Amino acid sequence: MGFYETEYWLNDTWGYRRRDRMSGAYHPYVPDSLTGLQISLRPATAAAVASAQSDVELPDAEAKHMHRIEPLARLRQQQGE
Predict the structure, then answer these.
(1) The pTM is what?
(2) Number of domains, the chain
(3) Cα 31 vs. chain centroid, distance in angstroms?
(4) Which domain holds residue 24?
(5) pLDDT of the chain, 81 residues: tens digit per residue
């Protein structure tokens, strides 16, 4: 199961309001690694995932001049293409 770490942020900026310049502790969440995890999906779930993935890829296949779709471009990069 994931866990929270305690980190300390040291401000090195200037020009902001005092409260925006304050350093302090923060607690980022560190999830469990998915690397090597064996996930088995039921056939209906796998079909729904495949359908959703094709819907996400559809704009790339049909429209070559779309703007502001950077999140979709990142998804494509993560898939290794």
Answers:
(1) 0.39
(2) 1
(3) 12
(4) 3-32+41-78
(5) 899 999 998 877 766 777 777 888 999 999 998 888 888 999 999 999 999 988 887 766 666 666 666 666 666 555 554
